[in-house]
Design a protein that fits this description.
The protein is mainly alpha-helical and 126 residues long. Helices cover 86% and strands 0% of the residues. It is built from five helices and no strands. The chain starts with a helix and ends with a helix. The protein has helices at 2-28, 35-57, 63-77, 80-92, 96-125.
């Protein structure tokens, strides 16, 4: 239960930060392109890489801290960071084929699922 609470608390921080970045991007860059989403996805992936490498190479941190930062804050900021880490782990394990399947399935199936959800909701609720 403690780990769930750590993830939830971090998730609240990350989601708040994602909202602020989105609002800021809209305000300073303008509409027309999803700059806020792009910024959080790229920044979240960069920060995930820095954290994971730092934890592995230099700092010994507890599972609670890892969960709060990586799963919680970065997961709330962007789930793309977790996807990027999973892809990188497969690539570093020399499982390039599996990594490419994961990449295609994650992106392709997620987009298809979104359209399926839109279709179902429109069909059921109109």
């Amino acid at each position: 239960m403690k780990m769930v609470l750590m993830a939830a608390m971090g998730g609240a921080v990350g989601a708040g930060a994602r909202y602020l970045v989105g609002v800021g991007a809209l305000r300073f860059i303008g509409p027309g392109f999803p700059w806020g989403t792009l910024i959080v996805n790229v920044a979240g992936s960069l920060i995930m890489g820095l954290l994971i490498a730092s934890f592995a190479l230099r700092y010994s941190v507890s599972n609670e801290v890892r969960t709060f930062l990586a799963t919680g804050i970065l997961g709330g900021f962007t789930t793309f960071s977790a996807f990027s880490l999973d892809f990188a782990v497969l690539m570093e394990r020399k499982a390039q084929g599996l990594a490419l399947v994961y990449l295609g399935a994650s992106v392709g199936l997620s987009i298809l699922a979104l359209f399926a959800g839109l279709y179902l909701a429109r069909t059921l609720f109109q």
